[in-house]
Amino acid sequence: MNKKTIQMLPLLTLLAMPVSGQTIAGYEYWFDDGYAGRTEVRDAGGDIRQEIDVSALTPGMHRFMFRVEDTEGRWSNTLCKQFVYFGTSYGDKSVTRYELWLDDNVESRMSGDVTGGAIQMEIDAAGLSCGLHRVVLRAQDAAGRWSMAKVHNFVKPEPSLAGNMISSYEYWFNRGAVTRVEVGPANPFTADDLLIEVSDVVPNDIDDDYTVDWDEMTAYTADDVVFGIRYGDTAGRMSEARTDTFAYNVPVRLDVTRLVWGDTVSVSGPEAGRIYAYDVEAEAGDSLTWCTSGPCKMDIYAGTGERLARIDSPAMPVEHKMKAVSAGRVLALVYGVPSDTLSVCCNRKETSGITFAGSGVEICAGDGKITVVGASGRRCSLYSVQGYVVDRRLRMGETETFDVSGGVYVIVLTDDSGNTCRQTIAVKGR
Fold first, then answer.
1. pTM surpassing 0.85?
2. Is there a cis peptide before residue 18, judged by omega within 30 degrees of 0?
3. Beta bridge partners of 349
4. Residue 361 C-alpha from the chain's centroid
5. Secondary structure class of 19 (helix, strand, coil)
6. Cα angle, residue 398 at apex, residues 396 and 404 outer, rounded to 5°
7. Is the dihedral of CA 356, 360, 364, 369 positive or negative?
8. Structure confidence at residue 17 (pLDDT)
9. Longest Cα pair distance anywhere in the chain, in angstroms?
10. How far is CA 371 from the centre of its chain?
11. Distance between start and end Cα atoms, the chain
């Protein structure tokens, strides 16, 4: 049986597990577009090394697709590795020719025959500028097959910098912080075994379809992450940056700020890839008004994680009014802020609610208002506690509001049969 040993150590490995520290519970893999016939492996035990039978493949170029699952049931991004399967007969594999080029000058590549399987040559670097460069080499066997290109970085030193070598590299994700790594000076420097963990990534923006792990207080948003790397020499100079892009479900930590009723909290220079989280503790029936200083997107959630509202205000500040259905925590997640400053506040009108026993009528007192719900068709008289008439309505609607000053009032409701309900209620001034 013809097998291919696949080891997960690419030229530049990017570890993209869903959450740092999680254990690999299993993995699955497939070839080309054959996801339906994928192989699933459970209880991976951490390290993954396996010989995989490729004898059923046709000779030629193929893709090996691989992803892992952690103990929380979250899947990593899919890793794709291309390889050539030559079939059961590899033919003559002896190296017969080579070609190489410097930097990106593929059109000016050099080539020649190989004798005895070894390539020995000198490269004229007189036309190169002083500094960091790349030499790219590939070989051809007797069957006419070309190898993958091999890249080496090297330094052409200035006359005063003879013996200069590569001594460091720097990398970053998107617009995030740059990480610098010192290495043993070398010229050339081979980066085949660099192992870089994907962490502390700030997404380019927040996707509307983000998800939230409320136990971990972490949101996840899909993003095309830009990875950049460059090399430094012992003279302190840096090469040009080389970049690549990969798809990643970026974790975004939710650091919640507790709001004080009516007070404003401001953020200077809000970032496109951040979610700004705020919460309040409300009582059932409270009237809440969420406000921002400028355009943004705001999602409001109950403490259970249920989304209560989504507000997309691309041109105007947010002013969203809502009623707390139950007592508990209410959260607002704000993102997509185009301005230089974000200010958020939440105002509350405390509601004292009274329900007439068996009548289905509810009376709520807010700041400078009395609201009567469920008294449709009844007559209503509103008196001050001193006994004079403040308002009188002959036929109430389903919801009626009375504008009053602060004080104590008596509400009298009478139905068509002459049955009367009386209630005293206190109202705060505006």
1. no
2. no
3. 287
4. 47
5. coil
6. 60
7. negative
8. 42
9. 116
10. 44
11. 85
> Strand, helix or coil at 274?
coil
Q: Three-state DSSP class for 159?
A: helix
- Per the CB < 8 A criterion, the answer to whether 371 and 332 are in contact is no
Tokens of 334: 């704000």
Model pLDDT for residues 276-330, shown as the tens digit of each residue: 999 999 887 788 999 999 999 999 999 999 999 999 999 999 999 888 878 899 9
Decide: 213 and 200 in contact? Cβ < 8 Å. Answer: no
| The amino acid at 118 | A
Q: Which residue in 377, 362, 374 sits closest to 425, CA to CA?
A: 362
Pairing of strands 276-282, 256-258: parallel
User: Which of 341, 351, 354 minimizes the C-alpha distance to 425?
Assistant: 354
Do residues 393 and 379 make contact, with C-beta atoms less than 8 angstroms apart?
Answer: yes
Q: Which residues are 92's β-sheet partners? A: none
User: Which pLDDT does position 88 carry in this prediction?
Assistant: 63
Q: Are 86 and 147 in contact (CB under 8 A)?
A: no
The CA–CA distances, whole Å, from 58 to 37, 48, 90 equal 16, 26, 13
Classify residue 329 as exposed, middle or buried by CB count within 10 Å of its CB (0-12, 13-18, 19+). middle
Q: Tell me the C-alpha distance between 79 and 267, whole Å.
A: 38
* DSSP string computed for 76-138: PPPEEEEEEE--S------EEEEEEEETT-GGG-EEEE-BTTB-------TTSPSEEEEEEEE
Label residue 226 by pLDDT band (50, 70, 90).
very high
Q: How far apart are CA 366 and CA 399, in angstroms?
A: 14
Contact yes or no for 286/364 (Cβ under 8 A): no
- Measured CA to CA, the distance from residue 333 to residue 312 in angstroms comes to 12
d(C-alpha 37, C-alpha 224), whole Å: 28
Spell out the residues 6+ positions from residue 206 whose beta carbon is closer than 8 angstroms to its own. 219, 221, 252, 272, 273, 274, 275, 297, 335, 336
Q: What percent of the chain has pLDDT over 90?
A: 36
Rounded to 10 degrees, what is the CA torsion of 282, 286, 290, 291? -120
Residue in the structure block whose two tokens are 């699933």:
40
Which residue type is seen at 174? N
